[in-house]
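Section: Multi-chain targets

For targets with more than one molecule, the full set of components is provided together so that the structure can be written out for the assembly as a whole rather than chain by chain. Components appear in the order listed by the source. The example entry contains two components.
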Amino acid sequence: MQDNLQSSSYKELEQKSKFTNMFLRWFLYFILILFASYFIFPLYVMVVTSLKTMEEIRQGTLLTWPSSLNFDSWLVAWGGRGYGAGDTFLRPYFWNSIKMVVPAVFFSTFIGAMTGYVLTKWRFKGDQWVFLFLLFGCFIPFQAILLPMARTLGTLGISNSVVGLVLVHTVYGIPFTTLFFRNYYISVPTELVKAARIDGAGFFKIFFKILLPISAPIIVVTVIWQFTQIWNDFLFGSTFSFGEAAPIQVALNNMVLSSTSVKEYNVDMASAIIAGIPTLIVYVLAGKYFIRGLTSGAVKG
Amino acid sequence: MSMKTLKIEELSKNFGTTEVLRKINLEIDEGNFLVLLGPSGCGKSTLLNIIAGLETINEGNVFIDDYNVSKVEPKDRNIAMVFQSYALYPSMNVKENMIFGLKQAKTSKEKIEEQLQKVSTFLQVDKLLERKPSQLSGGQRQRVAIGRALVREPRIFLFDEPLSNLDAKLRVEMRREIKKLHQQLKTTVVYVTHDQTEAMSLGTKIAIMNHGVIQQNDTPEIIYNKPSNTFVADFIGSPSMNLIQGKIIQNSNNISFIAEGSTFGVPINNYDFKDKSDLNNKEIYFGIRPEHIYFKKLNEDDFDVNLRADLSEYIGHEQIVTLDYSNQEILAKFPSTIKIELEKEMKLYFDLKHISLFDLNTKERL
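Its structure, encoded as tokens over all components, is:
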């Protein structure tokens, strides 16, 4: 009797918890979908607008699908209209940005790896202070170094050039890249370095043969971080360059703000997407490693 | 004077203001297995790193084959080291790991191949040569790490707690393998551990360290039977030696020990005193190991005493019994077949041949 009573009440409880679980699950999906659409919405509007003609846009239907796929505005954004003065388009600046971002990412990552290696595996007196000052670099607001950096670039004779921007971004990237690599290498057993020293390997050999081959996760993290930072940078680009040496974000701004006649929203949207595509590609290609690298703990020997 | 494979002379080391090693003197003959044993932070690993050349020296010298290597680079000291984390290069396979050192030393291809063949077969890792360290089990990694040391044919092998990352069962197995290895190859070894069983079973000599000072450097037998101070007595043995406080009473031909608060004396006439003068009223520790307290008389001169049993801990083949010796807690080890009645006095026997006496103040052996 007692048993029966209990088993029936268990059944009831089971039903109840099943229902609650299902309800909570659907509620969760609802919330997730809501947030996801919130984030995807601007992108949707951008893509749709870029494919519309100006007439369609003027009708004021922001959300509707374009009546026909019209890639003209993309072509204009990328290659211009083909008439002379005043025709701003992204292609040359896109290559400026590539020429700036590739070396800047490479150098800042490489130097950060080296510094991280030294700060963890070749400890020296006062190395914590060096690290602390490097960390300060992460917290100094960009605006604070504009004037001194402008003077430095002027003295070096590389102001208003891609080379100058490479230098600025490399220098400003080192604190971050060092932080990444130091935190990664600190979890690599120092015994590896000791073993290699006994085996007769020197400073550079240990770095290139032992540590760098196991640094893939953190290299990916650093590259993504640096690429995003440098590609999306507007402040340094607009301060230290103008005219033909400007990177894409500056050009985008010029394009959107300086149009003399009617605002061409479709071209603006296409330009904005073009300017954003490279970072998107980097994330898609390496995003998996990005998460892995951020969360990876100790390196298992 | 014969040549010493390794000699350490008046060696001191400090990190900033912390003194890590103080006036260390050590000598190892060819083919010996020296274990540096001590609690964590005693400086044993630092000492090993100094021998390897991975740490600098503040004072003193290190000699290998009578040649002063104090300022010689690790790779030129003719040593090889096996690390606690194995420190196998993660990006290289077993073969590359093992020959990395030989390649750095620009050894000829034929010689490298020959050495690799010999060592990998000997350690039974010849089937694993193409694997990455991450694809190996703990024991295999250990073997590869030893192999990496072996291919270089060093004068001295340095082991830094090589077994402490293994699980209990594997540890015992690998311990035996290291012992076998040493017996077969007759190499000179310096081995760091905090595990006394490892030290006892592997070492031909054990140097016990504490606070950067060598407390005793002797064979395992002498360390166990005649610890030179209370630190060694306490550190070696499980459970460790009972140290009973009390003092010596000497009259005419009789020397006896009376524990604090106790009424009876334990005769210690036959104890091998270093110095027999001025013993009367000396405050001492009376040291007896738990395994030297018997539940029945084994020797003619075993001293019988009535003690109350307070607690019994069963650990399988034996039991550890907590006894009350005039308000001082002491432990005894009996076979688990003996039935102990708690809260009752029982007659027990101290094996007086195996006692150690220590000065209460200096903690040194009398």
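The two ends of chain B are 32 Å apart (CA to CA).
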